[in-house]
Write a structure and sequence with these properties.
single chain; alpha/beta; Rossmann fold; 6-stranded mixed sheet; 4-stranded antiparallel sheet; 10 strands
Length: 237
């Protein structure tokens, strides 16, 4: 893994052409180092979601450079981009994005099925998925379907799924948005524990209290990073 997991330089995302062109990102640059926990904040329409989609290889910039774990993403075709997305990025969404017809165990297994590196994993995929679910406190919910789990439990399944392929980075987009305050804090405690275990995390949030639990806060406005606040104190898991 590269020392800088994310390197973004002069990233531009334009929609439309000519006089009707609008810019979601206007020359944004940022670096996320291995093992960092970074929160991204900004008002609606600031470019946060566009940035996260590009970082997660779900969208392409109009111009600029993006290197993910040493790979120049802009030079990849669609198939190569899909491989990098599956191998390098673990997603945690506000709405969980679990498949309702699959159990917790099956949801965590899913990304492993598309990762050729896992063909040589010691032990079965299922054993690895069970270990991940146990690590997020759901070892006794392996065969429950999403509608049999609380919101907090569904998000824990999503975290286990995000970790399935040992990603270079975890992208969390408003991960507590559908949770009550107790479940939100439990989730943040889990994310901080993962961070202290070495995970690299980028989280978008509207909550200043949640962002304040990250290691560094990037404020985005009008498609640019306007502030980069680093917390000096140690963050306990």
């Amino acid at each position: 893994m590269a020392e800088n997991v994310i390197e973004v330089h002069d990233l531009v995302k334009r929609y439309g052409e000519g006089e009707v062109a609008t810019y979601a990102l206007g020359g944004l640059s940022m670096i996320v180092r291995k093992g960092e926990f970074v929160a991204i904040m900004g008002p609606s329409g600031s470019g946060k979601s566009t940035l996260m989609n590009i970082l997660g290889c779900l969208d392409r910039p109009t111009s600029g450079s993006y290197r993910l774990d040493g790979i120049e993403v802009g030079k990849l075709n669609r198939s190569e981009l899909a491989v990098v997305r599956n191998e390098k990025v673990g997603f945690i969404f506000q709405s969980y994005n679990l498949l309702s017809r699959l159990t917790a165990l099956q949801n965590v297994l899913l990304p492993m099925m598309y990762d050729v590196r896992n063909q040589n994993r010691n032990g079965s995929h299922e054993a690895h998925a069970q270990m991940l679910l146990d690590s997020v406190g759901l070892g006794n919910r392996l065969h429950h379907f999403p509608n049999q789990l609380s919101g907090g439990q569904q998000q824990r399944v999503a975290i286990a799924r995000a970790l399935a392929n040992d990603p270079a980075i975890i992208l969390a987009d408003e991960p507590t948005g559908n949770l009550d305050s107790k479940s939100s804090q439990e989730l943040m405690t889990l994310l901080k524990l993962l961070h202290h275990q070495g995970a690299t995390i980028v989280m978008v949030t509207h909550g200043a209290d949640l962002a304040g639990q990250a290691e560094r806060i990037l404020h985005v406005s009008d498609g640019q990073i306007v502030d980069n606040a680093i917390r000096e104190e140690e963050i306990a898991p």
